[in-house]
Amino acid sequence: MQTDRIVLRPRSPAEAIELGLHLTRANWLSQIALMQALLLPVLLLGAGLALLFSPLLLLTLIWFKPTLDRALLHQLSNDLLARPAGAATILRQWRQWWFGGHAVSLLWRRFIPGRSVVLPIWQLERLKGARRNQRARSLNHNDRGSSTSLTFLASMVELTLLASTVALIVSFAPEQWTDGMQFFDWLAVNANVDSFWWLLALAYLPALALVEPFYVGAGFGIYLNQRSRLECWDLEPQLDALVARHHSRGHA
Question: Fewer CB in 10 Å around end: N or C, the chain?
Answer without folding.
Answer: C
